[in-house]
Automatic annotation (TrEMBL):
Aminoacyl-tRNA synthetase class Ia domain segment(s): 34-654
Binding site for Zn(2+): 913, 916, 932, 935
Organism of provenance: Pararhodospirillum photometricum DSM 122
Signal sequence coordinates: none
Domain Methionyl/Valyl/Leucyl/Isoleucyl-tRNA synthetase anticodon-binding, residue spans: 699-849
Protein name, as recorded: Isoleucine--tRNA ligase
EC number, as in UniProt: 6.1.1.5
Record-linked Gene3D superfamilies: 1.10.730.20, HUPs, Ile-tRNA synthetase CP2 domain-like, Valyl/Leucyl/Isoleucyl-tRNA synthetase, editing domain
Assembly description: Monomer.
Length: 944
């Protein structure tokens, strides 16, 4: 390389990118300004106007609970919904998002009760209507806070008129929906065991239950046989094992496994401290005998008989506390739930304290006794234990069993046990009168299972999960013994105990609720609802409330059906995977029970959030950062980018390092947009090249790639595969644009003249790339896309979010060209690697100082024919050599995956052009000092 004899400053003649779009985003400060702009534009209303007449796409919002600041799980959920809503809108749908809130129920009621407890007051002493008004005010306060927090995330929706389950019209519709079950016979009152919180004093739904480790006292207890079905059982005792000693006062039977084998054992020796007695006879499951003998410290025994389970039918035992107030027979009954996995092969049956127990007892005409009240205390009529608490009674039970000579052994066991997810207190199964919706009446179970088959589940495994739940679930308990909620607004005949089934009464109640709210149930005279045909003295109004899962299960009725801007059924329900047993579940049952099908065509579930170590988030661990903190420091677009770059179908990790990586990804995307904007400075329609066929191959290759991306964008938006789509867009920006196309075309953009056909084609393609890329990214990084769009198209009234994804001409597709350019790019990768190696070896500095010699196969050379390979490889020259005729020298640079290319880097000959910096032989031979022919021509045209 020779030094140029003359130097000149041509910097001002180079077309360097110019843009007002800054490299530093400053999202935390800029996003609120963009939000304010959307408010001024009333963007939501503009979107609805723009979409009027289009096909609707409705994502129905699962209502979050109005009782606290948002957490990052809320952010994940709402951002994902917003991405779907925006993408469907930009694909040409009327995609209206109406947010909503769950407002009734225990969490809010609990908060208000805490206020009273802090003052030393009892909530039950407060007027129920006054208490309910406090609950309503609490929910209203948090709705206002959460609304602003959601809006700050960039969520577009009908924030002015969202739905709430406590709206008067919603409460009225809930009454009407429950009335449908009343009228079709699906709703009934029954007494059966339900999961009960003795702390919250109410029944709980499955979705309100979490399982935690709990240590229980275990007991092995003798049940003396009084009526043996087989001679071998005479004088024996059946041994049961239980982890719930508190249920023993409710015992009414013992279950055995008909398919199991049982041993009749005579005790011949015992160890010190044993409660077993030498000479007694015990009956135990044969497969569990060794375990029972060990726990009972029985050191010697004889098996006097073995019996099949079927031989036990007809055997009757005495309760262990016979003579102490428990003087009833305890029959042995076959139960298909009895196994030989643990225990003794016998299960004690308390029909009031277990589901299996209840159904087995009912099948044999055994009524569940009432033994425990709502506070967890034994009722006054319960012998030995009246007034004692079930969670504190174990020592007393052991003492009573020991005194009766019934206790064989005892111990403790740590096992998974149901707890309330609110109070964290353990639960009990308690027999109590409740209102149920039958799973069999009107074939509700069958309809729900068919609806599951007819629904699209994303990911598909959701179908099996909810299907298994519906197949095995018991009747739906819809009543709660609380104050804050929609009343079960029914009247029960005092004589018959039957609910009054009269649609006119239901409608009068609903109309009152619609006008005045559900408080009317507590303030109005029953005559108003019963009308002239019924005597209020004959009827008792129900004071239970409807469980909140029925409330939210009805949202399809009072939101989708009630609003003209929506439709029923919804195209999509979207929530966390826990809602297979929650909102998806109850919405399915409510809709199938009243309309015969699901209220949705598709259901999408996302996973739970984990910290960077894979642990669940919790305040106690200090790993639960709020979205407000992230938004106020990094910006909402960083959170949004994290959502779409994550595979949300599985559990998702979140934390500082992940946010750091996301921020770096965002920076690269932003810089791509910035370069595109800078390269388009001054571009207008007069410069556009409309004849694609006349463009250089490189530009046509980019258009081909855009056509493929357009197809992928639309397919991924339809399949909600945003992780896949983000990866494709990010790869396009990083590898195809920044590292290849834009890198190659910088020379043309900066140094060619304004009328250069290549430069015009390049700027035309960059314009087409920008318009697509910024709209494709708009659902993802909504603030940044808006900023970039307005930088390119300044407007007081426009928004990128009012655009549709641009249509892509089919003629841009060119598979033959793509195949050829795959060969070209393969060769280029080897050259680029050789240049990097040469720079590392200090052979040269910039790539334009090089003139590589490339040895390649004839097929590869044919692909490169007619192309300026020096331009594509960003060198000042490049020689192509047929490797079949002249093999590459030893030491030439190669790549393992491109076996037919080898490169030797040589230094370019000539002088450095003072304008484009290429090293060319003709530099210094033109009118403008120190320039090459191309640059001299551009300067001459500029001065003409």
């Amino acid at each position: 390389m020779r030094s140029s004899a003359m130097t000149a400053d041509y910097k001002s003649t180079v077309f360097l990118p110019t843009t007002a779009f800054p490299m530093k985003a400053g999202l935390a400060d800029k996003e609120p300004e963009i939000l304010a702009r959307w408010e001024r534009l009333d963007l939501y209303a503009r979107l609805r106007d723009a979409a009027r007449g289009r096909d609707k796409f409705v994502l129905h919002d699962g209502p979050p609970y109005a009782n606290g600041h948002l957490h990052n799980g809320h952010a994940l959920n709402k951002i994902l919904k917003d991405v779907i809503t925006r993408s469907q809108q930009m694909m040409g749908k009327d995609s209206n998002y109406v947010p909503g809130w769950d407002c009734h129920g225990l969490p809010i009621e609990w908060k208000i009760e805490e206020r009273y407890r802090a003052k030393g007051q009892n909530k039950d002493d407060v007027d129920v209507v006054a208490f309910r008004r406090e609950c309503r005010a609490f929910a209203e306060e948090w709705i206002a806070i959460q609304r602003e927090e959601f809006k700050r995330l960039g969520i577009v929706g009908d924030w002015k008129t969202p739905y709430t389950t406590m709206a008067y019209a919603a409460e009225a519709r809930i009454v009407r929906e429950l009335g449908k079950f009343l009228m079709n016979g699906g709703l009934y009152k029954g007494a059966k065991p339900v999961l009960w919180s003795v702390v919250e004093k109410t029944a709980l739904a499955d979705a309100e239950v979490e399982y935690q480790d709990h240590t229980s006292t275990t007991i092995w207890v003798r049940f003396p046989v009084v009526t043996p079905a087989q001679p071998a059982l005479a004088g024996a005792s059946v041994v049961i094992w239980t982890t719930t000693p508190w249920t023993m006062p409710g015992n009414r039977a013992v279950a055995y496994g008909a398919g199991l084998s049982y041993a009749v054992v005579k005790v011949t020796a015992v160890a010190e401290g044993a409660l077993a007695r030498v000479g007694e006879t015990l009956v135990v499951g044969e497969d569990l005998l060794a375990d029972v003998l060990a726990h009972a410290k029985i050191s010697g025994h004889e098996v006097s008989a073995t019996l099949p389970g079927t031989a036990l039918a007809g055997t009757v035992c005495a309760h262990p506390w016979r003579g102490r107030g428990y003087d009833y027979d305890v029959p042995l009954l076959a139960g298909d739930f009895v196994t030989a996995d643990q225990g003794t092969g016998f299960v004690h049956i308390a029909p009031g304290h277990g589901e299996d127990d209840y159904f087995l007892g009912r099948a044999h005409g055994i009524q569940p006794p009432d033994t425990v009240d709502g506070d967890g205390l034994y009722m006054a009529h319960v012998p030995l234990f009246a007034g004692q608490h079930v969670f504190k009674v174990a020592p007393a039970v052991l003492a009573a069993m020991t005194e009766a000579g019934a206790l064989l052994a005892h111990g403790s066991l740590t096992h998974s046990y149901p707890h309330s997810w609110r109070s964290k207190a353990p639960l009990i199964f308690r027999n109590t009168p409740q209102w149920f919706i039958s799973m069999e009446t009107n074939d509700l179970r069958a309809k729900a299972l068919q609806a599951i088959e007819d629904t699209r589940w994303v990911p598909p495994r959701g179908r099996n999960r909810i299907g298994a739940m519906i197949e095995s679930r018991p009747d739906w308990c819809v009543s709660r013994q609380r104050a804050w909620g929609v009343p079960i607004a029914l009247f029960v005949n005092k004589k018959t105990g039957e609910p009054l089934r009269d649609p006119a009464v239901i409608e009068r109640i609903a109309q009152a609720f619609e006008a005045e709210g559900a408080d009317a149930w507590y303030t109005e005279d029953p005559r108003r609802f019963l009308g002239p045909d019924y005597d209020p003295a004959d009827f008792e109004p129900v004071r239970d409330i409807v469980e909140v899962w029925f409330d939210s299960g009805c949202t399809h009725a009072f939101v989708l059906e009630a609003r003209e801007d929506l439709k029923w059924p919804a195209d999509l329900y979207l929530e966390g995977s826990d809602q297979h047993r929650g909102w998806f579940h109850t919405s399915l049952l409510e809709s199938c029970g009243t309309r015969g099908r699901a209220p949705y065509d598709a259901v999408l579930t996302h996973g739970f959030l984990l910290d960077e170590k894979g642990d669940k988030f919790s305040k106690s661990k200090g790993n639960a950062e709020s979205p407000q903190k992230v938004v106020s420091t990094l910006g909402a677009d960083i959170l949004r980018l994290w959502v779409v770059s994550s595979d949300y179908t599985n559990d998702i990790r979140f934390g500082p390092e992940i946010l750091k990586q996301t921020t770096e990804t965002y920076r690269r995307l932003r810089n791509t947009l910035r370069f595109l904007l800078g390269a388009l400075e001054g571009f207008d329609e007069s410069e556009r090249v409309t004849d694609v066929a006349s463009m250089p191959e490189l530009e046509r290759w980019v258009l081909h790639h855009l056509a493929g991306l357009d197809e992928q964008v639309r397919a991924c938006c339809q399949s909600f595969s945003f992780h896949e789509l983000f990866q494709a867009l990010n790869t396009f920006c990083t590898l195809d644009l920044s590292a290849f196309y834009l890198d190659v075309r910088k020379d043309v953009l900066y140094c060619d003249g304004p009328t250069s056909p290549t430069r015009r084609a390049c700027r035309t393609v960059i314009d087409l790339v920008f318009n697509r890329l910024v709209t494709w990214l708009a659902p993802f990084i909504c603030f940044t896309a808006e900023e970039a769009w307005l930088t390119r198209f300044p407007s007081e009234t426009d928004s990128v979010h009012l655009q549709l994804f641009p249509e892509t001409p089919a003629g841009w597709r060119d598979e033959a060209l793509a195949t050829r350019w795959a060969q070209v790019r393969g060769l280029r990768r080897v050259v680029t690697g050789a240049l990097e190696r040469a720079r590392a070896d200090k052979v040269l500095g910039a790539s334009v100082q090089a003139h590589p010699v490339v040895y390649a196969s004839a097929e590869r050379l044919a692909a490169c024919a007619g192309l300026d390979m020096a331009e594509l490889c960003i060198t000042s020259g490049l020689s192509l050599v047929d490797s079949a005729q002249t093999p590459a020298p030893e030491g030439a640079h190669t790549l393992e995956d491109v076996t037919d290319v080898a490169v030797v880097v040589q230094v370019a000959e000539g002088d450095k052009c003072q304008r484009c910096w290429k090293i060319l032989p003709d530099v210094g031979t033109h009118a403008h000092p120190g320039t090459c022919g191309r640059c001299d021509s551009v300067l001459t045209q500029a001065s003409a």
